[in-house]
Amino acid sequence: MSELKINRQGQFSSLETVDGEIATLNLGPTHPATHGIFQNILKVDGERIISAEPTVGYIHRAFEKLAEHRSFQQVTPITDRLNYCSSPINNMGWHMTVEKLIGAEMPKRVDYMRVIVMELSRIADHLVCNSVIGVDTGALTGFTYVFQEREKIYDIFEEICGARLTTNVGRIGGFDRDFSPAVFAKIKKFLKDFPKVFGEFTDLLERNRIFMDRVIGAGPISAERALNYGFTGPNLRAAGVDYDVRVMNPYSSYQDFDFQIPIGKDGDTYDRFRVRQEEIHESLKIIHQALNNLPEGNYHGDVPSFYIPPKEEVYRSMEALIYHFKITMGETPVPAGEIYHAVEGGNGELGYYLVSDGGRTPYRLHFRRPCFIYYQAYPEMIQGSVLSDAILTLSSMNVIAGELDA
Amino acid sequence: MENTQLQEIVSKIETKFPNASISEDNYQMMNIVVGKSEIYDMVSYLKSDLEFGFLTDLCGVHYPQNVGNEFQVVYHLHHLPKNIRLRLKVNLSVDDLSIPSMVSLFSAANWMERETFDFYGIKFEGHPDLRRILNMDDMDYHPMRKEYALEDETRDDKQDSFFGR
Questions:
Q1: Cβ separation B134–A405 shorter than 8 A
Q2: At B1, is the pLDDT very low, low, confident or very high (cuts 50, 70, 90)?
């Protein structure tokens, strides 16, 4: 029997077992506490985790292979299903990648409309993550409370594009239609009502002694290790690195907006929670600015050979009919070339590496999925901690199975 | 300003690795094609001496028509303080699909290399645990290679000869 040393963060620093009996615990693939299809084969001594071996790929759907057989606009519905908590960001990221390939310039109005949609979905994504951290600590109230607000974000998406979860919003070359007055009304109502609800959610958890005791020190990672592991997004910022794609490589006119990058210090569950909380405030700021300064103009760019024409024109004009046919069949020539375009997804740098040979489909499309890359740090982060902290670490990293497995 | 920094970095790489071919593509990205014997030294040089401390992405591409260079491993490195991205490419022949692993430099490379192995069969020498990751373990081919059709070729109920698919 060896003595256990407990360090400042409440973790066991020694990995020698108390009585030498090690149990193997199969956490997953479907476990109510993992919020997705993840399997972890844990070696545990009592409640203490000695090692973890994650198995992924349970919902692998061969998106990269599928994308090689679809025309560019048909890839958008695939991207919906990556991080399905913030589908619009994935859609917009893909649209912008193709626009970069074909060299299309978007009017400012499109950029601002995209920013509004993307920031709304970032709020929805962070709300899921943070309220689920609450659930995993035993605080279900906040979850049920903010999920009503998440529904309202989905109502806005529904008003914009007709879909709620897998949105397929927008087109290559802009939007399929302008925001209707109902959209603006709903966004304004959301901006008015949400801060109050969110404030109450914050009051429930953020300075709650029980919650803080539970999450501070759970699953920490240093900035150096996080960078080495390829962390991006809120998880990297929680470790204290202020890398945000929106600021470093601004896309869709993010340089026009005034917002802060919140960062943490210890990279533990509490810091990840706090960073997401603050990012929701920043996203609200961005939406306010985008709404107030929304430029007049067209809701799509001038790229007739890539932008699907409105249906009523397809019925009336010959050019529109030809373009509609050519775009749908992927017959419009694209330049050959290689593009890497990244957007700040809900979980970090969502990158699209697109190789085009000028054909009707992408020659090769690789998704840089932030979840896939940072989930490999999970065994290192939970080693030596207790099982309940491992669940918290998983939910606070916001690992989304769809993005993990592509 | 950024351009001179980039030029400085490029000239350093050129001096250190005269065999690498460096070119800028139409989308303002530096592409460096390097032999597989030099890739580890180059990434390690970029990481330790030139502060490219972030491996953004690693993936494979299959070009069956390029005889002798059928496969390509593509690395995206990011210099976070100066915000410079580089794309490194290594061409591999189908007869010798092995390349040094980057796991000792970047922990992030672990699963990315497993994914590349899974889909293209490229062997990463020195990888601690080179197994399939997304596909099932007893699969006996590497599905992202171009010779594998998307759908089962033995099916005859999905003919779509009108549109050449």
A1: yes
A2: very low
Interface predicted TM-score of the whole assembly (ipTM), two decimals: 0.92
Cβ-Cβ contacts under 8 Å, B111 against chain A: 372-373, 375-376
Please tell me the distance from the alpha carbon of residue A327 to that of residue A317, in angstroms, as a whole number.
16
Token pair for residue B67? 């005889």
Give tens-digit pLDDT for B111-159. 999 999 999 999 999 999 999 999 988 888 899 999 888 876 666 666 6
Highest mean pLDDT, choosing among A27-36, A164-173, A181-190: A181-190
For the domain made up of A63-405, the CATH class stated in words is: mainly alpha
CATH number of residue B66's parent domain: 3.30.460.80
Tokens found for residue B97: 């699909």
The residue of chain B nearest to residue A243, with distances taken between CA atoms, is B80
Residue of A nearest to B162 (CA): A329
Write out pLDDT tens, residues A201-233: 999 999 999 999 999 999 999 999 999 999 999
Q: What backbone torsions phi and psi does residue A277 show, to the nearest 5 degrees?
A: -55, -50
Kindly list the distances between the CA atom of residue A376 and the CA atoms of A227, A228, A259, A381, B111, in Å, as whole numbers in the listed order.
13, 11, 31, 10, 7
**Residue closest to B86 by CA, chosen among B140, B17, B139:** B17
Evaluate whether B56 touches B102 at the Cβ level (below 8 Å): no
Dist CA B57 CA A230 (whole Å): 9
**pTM attached to this predicted model:** 0.92
| Contact across the interface for B150 and A66, Cβ inside 8 Å | yes
Q: How far apart are the first and last CA of chain A?
A: 45
**Contact map slice: A 194-233 vs B, CB within 8 A:** 225, 227-230
Whole-angstrom Cα distance, residue A80 to residue A400?
13
Which residues constitute the domain of residue B91? 2-150
Q: Chain A neighbours among B 60-119 (CB < 8 Å)? A: 61-62, 74, 76, 80, 83, 85, 87, 106-108, 110-112, 115, 119
Residue A12 DSSP code: B
pLDDT at residue A109, as a whole number: 94
- CB–CB contact A366 B150 (8 Å): no
Count up the domains in chain B and report the number: 1
Q: Which residues of A touch B31 (CB under 8 A)?
A: 338
